[in-house]
Amino acid sequence: MTPHQLFSLDGKVALITGGATGIGRMAATGLMQAGAHVFIASRKQGACEIVAAELNQMGSPGKATGFVGDVGSAAGVEALSEEIAKRTDTLNILMNNAGLTWGAELGKFPFEAWEKVQSVNNAGLFHLTQSLLPMLIKSATLDDPSRVVNVGSVMGDAPLGDGAYSYAASKAAVHQITKIMAKELAEKHVTVNALAPGPFVSRMTAFATADEDTRDKVGQDVPLGRVGRDEDIAGCMQFLCGRGGSYLTGAILPVSGGIQVMSGPHLFRAALEG
User: I need a labelling partner for 225 at 20 to 30 A (CA). Which of 75, 102, 184, 261 fits?
Assistant: First the structure.
């Protein structure tokens, strides 16, 4: 079987929330390069339309369409679902990428940071998926399931909160939601998987990745020695959404350069070396 047969997305239709920047844009690029028509939704209409135009200039076999969409409220989810239904009868791929974070030290972390973050990262993700299930199920077959890809975080697996308490907890919830949905939707021929990224260049991590020197310092703390690159996300999406990933569901892919397996010193080193 050729790489084209395994990873081609010719004729597929995808929706990516938060698709105008960071990991969402990386994913959109990868799906377009494999031939998909990618709808990118963002809270800022001008931004997603500009990004869609830029992506369409790459010469990829796929295409991009941008429109405004906000999953931070029930009304926003309903409006986004109605908008995508107006634009397409088919939906093969849903990537729940929109997310918020909040950082503050312990003792000063505000109550409102929980509701604000979890309304997007958890409630918005769940309810958009639920709302679009009829389209996803309609587009699915036994041999070619529809795909849901949620964006979690390595911070949802490892105690690396760094003051982002509600964010880390919300991403752990994303991983659990992913597994539950995978179990319940398998019989409908819909796979549900998640990415658990480590540090990537994005608006959310701009404080640590915006300039090359700081980015290199952050990369030195990653086992594989660097921060994530565009192709790391693009490759995961092409695999998960192509024929090669059609038998995988309920997986949390640790796209973190090995952070998820970092640990402390060998517990018995002193005794063994003594």
Answer: 102
Helices (H), the chain: 3-7, 22-33, 45-56, 74-87, 112-118, 125-139, 165-185, 206-209, 212-220, 230-241, 269-273
Considering the entire predicted model, what is its pTM? 0.94
d(CA 25, CA 91): 19
Average pLDDT over residues 179-196: 98
171 falls within a domain: yes
**pLDDT reading at 94 higher than 80:** yes
- Whole-number pLDDT of residue 273: 72
Mean pLDDT of the chain: 93
Q: Is the pLDDT of residue 215 over 70?
A: yes
Q: How far apart are CA 2 and CA 6, in angstroms?
A: 6
Catalytic, 167? Answer: yes
* Position 232 in a domain: yes
Residue span of the structural domain in which 164 resides: 3-256
Question: Distance between CA atoms of 77 and 222, rounded to whole angstroms?
Answer: 36
CA-closest candidate to residue 152, choices 172, 181, 138, 135? 172
Catalytic residue selected from 167, 173, 196, 259: 167
CATH code where residue 44 lies: 3.40.50.720
Report which DSSP code applies to 73.
S
Q: What is the number of structural domains in the chain?
A: 1
244, part of any domain? yes
Higher confidence at residue 205 or residue 245?
Answer: 245
